[in-house]
Amino acid sequence: MSRVILAGKAASGKDYMRKVLESRGFKYGVSYTTRQPRKNEVEGKDYFFLTKERFLELAELDYWYEYIEFNGWYYGTSKEQFHDTCNLFIMTPHGISMIREEDRANTTIFYVDIPHAVRVERLSERDMPGDTTTRRIEADEADFKTFTDFDIRITNPNF
């Protein structure tokens, strides 16, 4: 199965691009997370929200294709989603690093890398329970510092 993965720092436009691709027939693999829902996020559409305990139980059961701990929360993609039911994902550099070589051959990764100032402006307008713009920017800078495993880089914030 061919798949597309979107990667980018917070407020880069990944969700916007995801919605455009979904409108063109892509099937999005909704990530699982232990973070609190943001205002207007819908269970099962934006994320599957789990307790940390349940997330780690599923890890012990080998449920995840990939998962990470980021900013104190867990995020993951199930094996079923990745192999059988979906062809569009949003992942972090660490999640992408867990993709097996045989799966990477059928995957196109878009890196949405828009200007820092645009991201800061967008983040300052977001409701982010349990998080801050500064913390998010710093965590993303560290996470993406050496990221090179992508096929296409988008730098225009108005794509």
Please tell me about this protein's structure.
The protein is of the alpha/beta class. It has a single domain (3-154), classed as Guanylate Kinase phosphate binding domain. It is 35% helix and 22% strand. It contains seven helices and eight strands; from the N terminus they run E-H-E-E-H-E-E-H-E-H-H-E-H-H-E. The chain has helices at 14-23, 52-60, 79-85, 93-97, 101-104, 116-124, 133-144, and strands at residues 3-8, 32-33, 48-49, 64-70, 73-78, 88-90, 107-112, 152-154. The strands form two sheets. It has a four-stranded parallel sheet with strand order 6-1-7-8, with helices on one face. A four-stranded mixed sheet has the order 3-2-5-4. A hairpin with a 2-residue loop joins strand 4 and strand 5. The two termini are 26 Å apart.
